């Protein structure tokens, strides 16, 4: 199925969780926030939430400099 | 009754003729007190504009001294200020720009012990700090005291800005519940930052603070503005309050301030 991640279309298999997706992308889940269909998903739910066809995700990395 | 000196009418004339500001709005700015965390990349442009528009009192906290490597972006400081206190350098620059502004320097690191006492006299807080422990401390202190907070942060070519109205809009922990583990944060020295990037982000923060004081326009509350300078792309994410937020949620678990482990000693 197709999903959108940071404005880019990606193929992912049904049943993929947010945690799986981050792992596949090589992103450590401890330093990102994930917005799914315009809703921020708490980090504790990354493993539970399974992605659906045409989900729109924004992965936002912690930025700390000033 | 509005009382301006002739010099003030002249100095603020381009504000006074704006109907959204006017004499009354200018008076609000002159009567307001803004506290800036950091006199670095973000604090520099933010403080510069806040002083220029006549914010009556600007508190600025930084316990660092100016380094040559700061001058590529920290426009409050000059070559002559190298090795001099950033907070004092800021005070001198800002007061020479606008004598209407009282600048109070704080040459100390903000901690759970001192922050509430320091910010209590200010109306709005602007976070331009360079490390996560301070960012979480400032967020939590603002939530606990109900102070509006402009959050800005930068890294390499990217910046993020949001405006936090405690109790009304999502706080920083609603987005990023806990700080990232220290080993995942790249060393500040290694990361690098485009010199003009903090100019964009710090100026947006100052814009938010001015609008907040004037009570005009729409704030970046409930939104996270993402700026990518390489792609020249601005994007807004919609934020919602997280009922499970450990500081502003329904059952907060954080009841007192936390001093997280310091993992970035080098000034950004």
Report on this structure.
The complex is a heterodimer of chains A (66) and B (268). Chain A is mainly β. Chain A has one helix at residues 18-24; strands at residues 2-5, 8-11, 32-36, 39-41, 56-61. The longest helix of chain A has 7 residues, at 18-24. Chain A is globular. Chain A contains one helix and five strands, in the order ββαβββ. Chain A has one domain (2-61): Beta-grasp domain (Ubiquitin-like (UB roll)). In chain A, 11% of the residues lie in helices and 33% in strands. Chain A starts with a strand and ends in a 5-residue tail after the last strand. Chain B is α/β, with parallel strands linked by helices. Helix content of chain B is 32%, strand content 17%. Chain B has helices at residues 6-11, 13-16, 22-30, 43-52, 86-97, 115-119, 132-145, 172-175, 188-191, 197-214; strands spanning 33-37, 57-61, 102-106, 124-127, 149-155, 158-164, 223-228, 233-238. Chain B has an eight-stranded mixed beta sheet, with helices on both faces. In chain B, helix 4 (43-52) links the parallel strand 1 and strand 2. In chain B, helix 4 (43-52) runs parallel beside helix 5 and helix 4 packs across helix 10. The termini of chain B are far apart. The model of chain B has no long low-confidence stretch (mean pLDDT 94). Chains A and B meet through strand 5 of A and strand 5, strand 6 and strand 8 of B.
